Amino acid sequence: MPGEPVTREAVILGYRMLLGRDPENEDVIANALAAWPDLQSFGKALATCAEFGLRHGSNLHALPSLDAGSNLVETEADADTLALMAAKVGGYWTRAGETAPHWSVLTEERFLPHNIANNLEAFYAAGAWDAQVVEATLGRIGRSVGQFRHCVDYGCGVGRVTLQLARRFPQVTGLDISGPHLHLARETFRAAGLGHVTLTQVMPERLMPVESCDLWFSRIVLQHCPPPVTMNILRQAFRALETGGVAIFQLPVWLQGYQFDIASYLAGTPGADMEMHAIPQRAILELADWHGLVLRDLREDSFLIGRPGGALSNTFTFEKLR
């Protein structure tokens, strides 16, 4: 955030998130504290350094051309088909939770099962940035954390971000389709003594098992669901959102060469691998409008690292007015 001073903890977290490693030594940390006046300048320095370019590729933040064509995407399905698609996707994440739960959330080598013991603290520390995004986003639309009672973290996994949200909101619900992920999350919250967190498994026939909330958050989750499943999740989330509530979520809205039709999808091998999907921006805006939500903030984000110019991801912030 502009003007916010650089701290030792911020330097370590910045190195971990952007470069995938810790600073070499205390001298490097001290030099960063002396060199950069605020977090914005420090973050820009890391994001433009040679090591970052080698790690993530050149031209990272290039956007698709304004004359890019449209994706043909089928976004609606009947209840049985929705449940079938959700079950296929859920099968993948259940298997991932059984074999490499932390790596399936953040796909870095240090979070693989044989490395996670030495990097568990860094894994959970990375969730602090997501919570900062929530705080900053609320600030941009004239709201504050203290105005919200019940926060839902959709696709909570092992609780990486949920843990940080639990330090800011009086009631937090983590939702995930993977039982093994939720098992680890429960152990984490039990050890932390956080009794105001509820963890609930999403089921294929009930994709949003929360009746009411006033803040709904999801990042790097919905992109792994087939478009009709994501649209159903959003539809139920918008219904559950109380008047005055806010939804903050990230979704790819364009992928080069992407299209989706249900018949072709089901004829393939759904759920065999981690999937990546996109939903046209127009469909999301129309769904939100239908449910009485007004767009308050829209950001082009960089959550599709490694696809410069070939993908567009948006972070949406809606407020429910009726």
Automatic annotation (TrEMBL):
Keyword terms, alphabetized: Methyltransferase, Transferase
Enzyme Commission identifier(s): 2.1.-.-
Ranges where the Methyltransferase domain occurs: 152-245
MF-aspect GO terms: methyltransferase activity
UniProt keyword RNA-binding, yes or no: no
Swiss-Prot/TrEMBL GO biological process terms: methylation
Keyword tRNA processing: no
Protein name: Class I SAM-dependent methyltransferase
Species this protein is from: Sediminicoccus rosea
Biological classification of the source: Bacteria, Pseudomonadati, Pseudomonadota, Alphaproteobacteria, Acetobacterales
